[in-house]
Specification:
The protein is of the alpha/beta class. It has one domain: TIM Barrel. The chain is built from nine helices and ten strands. An eight-stranded parallel barrel has the order 1-2-3-4-5-6-7-10. The protein has a two-stranded antiparallel ribbon with strand order 8-9. Strand 4, helix 4 and strand 5 form a beta-alpha-beta unit. Helix 1 packs parallel to helix 2.
Length: about 250
Amino acid sequence: MGTTSFIYPDDYAKNVEMLAPFFDEIELLFFESRFENSLPSKTEIQKLKNLAEKHCISYNIHLPVDISLGDAGIAHRTHAVDTINRFIERTRLLSPTTSTLHLVQPSPMEKKTDMKLWLDSLYWSMERVIGKEINGEDLSIENLFYPMKQIKNLMDDFQLSVCLDIGHLILSKQDIEKNFDAWMKKLAIVHLHGVDGEKDHLGLDQMPFPQMEKIMTKLRGFTGTVSLEIFSFSKLYNSMEILERFWDKNTN
């Protein structure tokens, strides 16, 4: 069980210090890459490593989302590849359980040629990310708002893992149980958070109870990381209460 490094309005290390006594794993969020301090310093990484050893926790990494490995322009793709490789290299000392990637689909995708160009661009990028320094299974691709089956060949060819975001499935009206079953063998991490209308990353108290029942049924057979991907203490507290209630209900 894990949660994010954005629970308290403070730096990564302070969040880890506050959360480590209560969680097995912390999701280190590196959403942005464009600022000078976006890439953590080697000193920061060493501090996080020391905290992990002290508290016997692990980390997973959320790689930047402000770049596109599937961009049609080679200059943008090259920048995206270089960015991802820098973050992977910098966080390697932490031995993350997985590093999560967004493969953003350009809009609109109106023709088959649009899809082919995007997929070809992703293959080009992955060939420059996967290599002797990182294996495909060390990267987990997060489901966004298109069906993951569109990139199944890419996932298989590079032996990529899956990050299943439950909120994204709900917002895009995709079947939760079918996606669990389809990707279970590749599933490294689950992002869990509440959804209300078009808003996500809410507390689990905002999740309809019938959906929570389905989710908990699937999670009981899952042995990877479940990360409560929320960004405040109040949402985290409410979510832990809901999880405890459903877990106790299913075990009694």
